Amino acid sequence: AADIASDLTTVLVTEEQIHEKLGQLAAQVESDYEGKNLLLVGVLKGAVMVMADFARHLTRDVAMDWMAVSSYGSGTKSSGVVQIRKDLDTDLHGWHVLIVEDIIDSGLTLSWLLENFASRGAESIEVLALLRKPEAAKVEIDCRYLGFDIPNEFVVGYGLDYAERYRNLRDVAILAPHVYA
Ligand code: PRP
Ligand code: MN
Ligand code: MG
């Protein structure tokens, strides 16, 4: 419904919690990548909010590029089939790559991306994810910079969608089952 509140049950992570965490992660990244060429790769479309806010917590210069992949379509379950909708514009040679994601759910998207990036000549490849659902993991992802572990519920907001909606919510919240039932 246009009135968002009736479509949600519980707020899991608030805007304030997100911004505090992104500040902490940015400080870690700045120290870990001192003197290195850092390229942030945002995974469209879910990572738009994390990328924009995380990047602005950094005081150093970074390059930013985007990859568009999708595995969920309009459902609530990962299809496991990852499609490239837009590839990187950047040749990864000489770059330390930090992939920026909104969520690790089954892990299939990142597992596929990491394999896809492995042969592109980057100096290093690490992952930053705002959210992770440990109970939903089908493959283990080595995530160097993690925001929050959350329960295995369908969540929306702060970039995460259901059928392209709710991405603009400022918090991360559980979608009420009546919305997708
Ligand atoms: C969502 C989310 C992650 C991925 C995580 O993207 O943004 O990219 O699923 O799920 P997984 O760990 O089970 O692979 P989605 O495919 O919905 O595309 P979107 O970012 O455009 O919403
Ligand atoms: Mn995504
Ligand atoms: Mg999605």
Q: Can you describe what's shown?
A:
Its main location: cytoplasm. GO terms for molecular function: guanine phosphoribosyltransferase activity; hypoxanthine phosphoribosyltransferase activity; magnesium ion binding; nucleotide binding. This is Hypoxanthine phosphoribosyltransferase. Belongs to the purine/pyrimidine phosphoribosyltransferase family. Its cofactor is Mg(2+). The protein is of the alpha/beta class and 181 residues long. It has a single domain, classed as Rossmann fold (3-Layer(aba) Sandwich), CATH 3.40.50. It is 24% helix and 30% strand. It contains four helices and nine strands, in the order βαβαβββαββββα. The chain has helices spanning 15-32, 48-57, 108-118, 177-180, and strands at residues 8-13, 38-44, 63-70, 83-86, 96-104, 124-132, 145-149, 155-156, 172-175. The strands form two sheets. A six-stranded mixed β-sheet has the order 4-3-2-5-6-7, sandwiched between helices. Strands 1-9-8 form a three-stranded antiparallel β-sheet. Helix 1 (15-32) crosses helix 2. The longest helix is centred in the first third of the chain and has 18 residues, at 15-32. It is globular, with a radius of gyration of 16 Å. It starts with 7 loop residues before the first strand and ends with a helix. The mean pLDDT is 95. Bound molecules: 1-O-pyrophosphono-5-O-phosphono-alpha-D-ribofuranose (PRP), manganese (II) ion (MN) and magnesium ion (MG). Manganese (II) ion binds at residues 43, 46. Manganese (II) ion binds next to loops.
Task: Give me some keywords for this one.
181 residues; alpha/beta; Rossmann fold; three-stranded antiparallel sheet; 24% helix; globular; binds 1-O-pyrophosphono-5-O-phosphono-alpha-D-ribofuranose; binds manganese (II) ion; binds magnesium ion
